[in-house]
Design a protein that fits this description.
alpha/beta; 14 strands; seven-stranded parallel β-sheet; five-stranded parallel β-sheet; elongated; disordered C terminus; Rossmann fold
């Protein structure tokens, strides 16, 4: 960044969209549009000549799509990439997450125009996301895991971490910025017969959740669902909190959804899920806090740990943003601190120990 001004490259094949996005971004004096291009190859050439601080990129472009463009940029001169696309069908939205798999950091809905009632809110979200992503210094691409039955990297515990002594019946995971890539990496590495259900709160722009679920179903061996009220979660299945609902667990294991007030402006909230897991499951739960901005879920991960649960926080080096897991570590909430590529193996090892009668 030059003089604390964020230089942005807009990549979109629509001239009208380019002009709208440029007008939105440059209404913030701390953001400057360094250039606009209409193709993937033009974006690659621009980055090689004048590296911007952030790339705002659509998915659909002529000749070279967003996935290939992002992959080539991230392999040569990595730049924070924000996907900016109109929400359509879930299968098309899933393409967004293939692009994130190639290295993009975040996704936002493309504002539809000033005539929309939510235009100002969407524009503000776009500007905030661009500013925040410009502060990400390390952008790491995750190689896709190919099997959950071999080659898992078993993490080394830091210190004499306690082993679970109670059968683990539910696992809760919280994530925000950078989370989709790590979730995909973890779920793809789990064995198909993983013995515990997994509940996830992933902070994501409204409307992108069906695409996220479809992408995870396509690229991992786990059945992934949008959480529903009254469902009893099944072993090896994954349930993601829906837009605008807190997701929790009742004693007895059933999922419930609620529109109770947002927590720190968030709904769904990781804090809500972890609090109910601590209350309903105690030492029979596991909590995992992944990359993300802010503090959501950190205090409640500590509550889970205090109630006897096993807890994991992602380490700084593998996090796109270390806010949430970093706060959990600061609070002493994490039984284990592991890199993203060790978490799946850690889950397998800990659940196996806790569910093995000989280890009880």
């Amino acid at each position: 960044m030059t003089d604390d001004v964020v230089n942005v490259l807009i990549v979109d094949d629509s001239r009208v969209a380019q002009m709208l996005l440029a007008r939105i971004l440059e209404s913030d004096p701390k953001i400057r549009v360094a250039g606009t291009v209409d193709s993937g190859q033009a974006a690659i050439d621009f980055v090689a000549a004048a590296k911007p601080d952030v790339i705002l990129m659509d998915i659909h472009m002529p000749e070279m799509n967003g996935f290939e463009t992002a992959r080539r940029i991230m392999e040569t001169q990595p730049v924070p990439i924000v996907v900016c696309s109109a929400i359509t069908k879930p299968l098309e939205v899933a393409t967004t997450f293939h692009l994130m798999e190639a290295g993009a950091l975040a996704c936002v809905e493309k504002p539809g125009g000033p005539e929309r009632a939510d235009f100002q809110q969407m524009a503000a979200t776009l500007r905030q996301t661009v500013r925040l992503m410009s502060e990400v210094k390390v952008v790491r691409r995750w190689a896709r895991a190919t099997s959950g039955r071999g080659g898992l990297r078993l993490p080394l515990a830091r210190g004499d971490a306690p082993r679970p002594r109670t059968r683990i019946t539910l696992i809760g995971i919280g994530a925000s910025t950078g989370g989709p890539q790590v979730l995909q990496h973890i779920l793809a590495a789990l064995p198909r017969a993983f013995p515990a259900p997994i509940l996830i709160v992933q902070h994501i722009a409204r409307g992108f959740l069906p695409g996220l679920v479809e992408w995870l179903n396509q690229t991992t061996g786990c059945p992934v669902h949008i959480g529903a009220n009254g469902v009893t979660p099944l072993p090896g299945h994954v349930y993601v909190a829906p837009d605008d609902f807190h997701m929790g667990v009742r004693r007895g294991g059933r999922i419930f959804l609620t529109m109770e007030d947002p927590i720190a402006s968030l709904r769904p909230s990781v804090a809500y899920l972890f609090r109910t897991l601590a209350d309903a499951c105690g030492p029979a739960a596991m909590g995992i806090l992944l990359t993300g901005m802010g503090k959501d879920g950190a205090g409640e991960l500590k509550l889970m740990k205090d109630n006897g649960a096993m807890t994991i926080a992602q380490d700084r080096e593998s996090s796109v943003v270390h806010g949430m897991p970093g706060e959990a570590i600061r609070l002493g909430a994490a039984t284990h601190v592991w890199p993203a590529d060790s978490i799946a193996a850690g889950m397998v090892a800990l659940v196996g120990r806790g569910n093995d009668p000989e280890e009880s």
